Amino acid sequence: MTQSTIKTNSNDHKIAKLAAIAVAISLVEFFLPSPIPGVKPGIANIIILYTIFKFDYQTGVWVSLIRVFITSIIIGTFLSPTFFLSLSGALCSLLIVLIFKNYNKKNFSLISISLLASLAHIVGQFIVVRVWIIPHDGILYLLPLFLISAFIFGIVNGIIVQKLITSKTK
Amino acid sequence: MKLAGIKNLMQKILLLIKKFKSGDWLVMLLFISLIFFITKYYWEFPQGQYLKIEKNNEIIGTYSLNQKNTFIIDSLMGTSEIIIDNNRARFSKSPCKKQYCIHQGWIKKINQTIICLPNQISISVIGNKEQFDSINY
């Protein structure tokens, strides 16, 4: 028998736990019916925002990417267009959160960050769709619908993250 | 009892909204204006200027919408009648069975089309110059 030589520290365990929660939430969300195809609340992003602002940015990136990869492997969409949509959305929102990470806490709250991240998520997905999957301007006709859903779920997720962060730190 | 529940809920929502900071309102306002402009840009179709009539895949002619006129076209099943009036156009008579083309009503915006399959006639509104679509692209 070969002994495992990989040593894990507490930080790895933390990432694994958070990623497991995010994957579980994504899976539940995947099986929930949606009134409009493609519109999802993105509840798993609550965990990622929480991770970034409770711990640090690097942990958040790990959790986000692990969530995207593991969820797609479990659902069976790994390396399919759905996977790349999910990945591009995640990367774009991570980029936006990186830019606004040190926000002015006096005037802004996590609701703003959540809104901007959800906007980035939709924009990232639409760039991939327009450039690669459906290279036609007609697809942009759907943009308002997705932006409205991003607005609603951005606020809801932001409120939840804000509540989680403030209640745990006290 | 029920009223108290609603009041409680309202108070909770009010409490949530009070926690929003000024910057959050700004971001929300910007987001809503973005949605507004994008919706306006992508969901608005301009009024067309010309009506293109096709029979059996051949263009019969392109006529200005700015006139009052009636076209009578003989085709496979019989004669169809198309009316142009008040910058819009519609089928008014058709020999086909289900009369879908008539029930479509008036069209006036660019790229709107009515097709009468049994009689093989289609009319579509176009702007000043031909809009690109996926077929000629």
Give an overview in words.
The complex is a heterodimer of chains A (170) and B (137). Chain A is mainly alpha-helical and 170 residues long. Chain A has one domain: Arp2/3 complex 21 kDa subunit ARPC3 (Orthogonal Bundle). Chain A has six helices and no strands. In chain A, helix 3 (57-75) packs antiparallel against helix 4 and helix 5 (110-133) runs antiparallel to helix 6 (143-169). The radius of gyration of chain A is 17 Å and the shape is globular. Chain B has 137 residues and is of the alpha+beta class. Chain B has two domains: 2-43; 50-126, mini-chromosome maintenance (MCM) complex, domain 2, CATH 2.60.320.10. Chain B is 31% helix and 31% strand. Chain B is elongated and about 70 Å long. The N and C termini of chain B lie far apart (64 Å). The mean pLDDT of chain B is 84. The interface between A and B is medium-sized, with 23 and 19 residues.
Topology:
The complex is a heterodimer of chains A (170) and B (137).
Chain A: H1 10-31, H2 44-54, H3 57-75, H4 81-99, H5 110-133, H6 143-169
Helix pairs in contact in A: 1-2, 1-3, 2-3, 2-6, 3-4, 4-5, 5-6
Chain B: H1 2-18, H2 22-43, E1 50-55, E2 58-64, E3 69-74, E4 79-85, E5 88-93, H3 100-103, E6 113-116, E7 121-126
Antiparallel strand pairs in B: 1-2, 1-7, 3-4, 4-5, 6-7
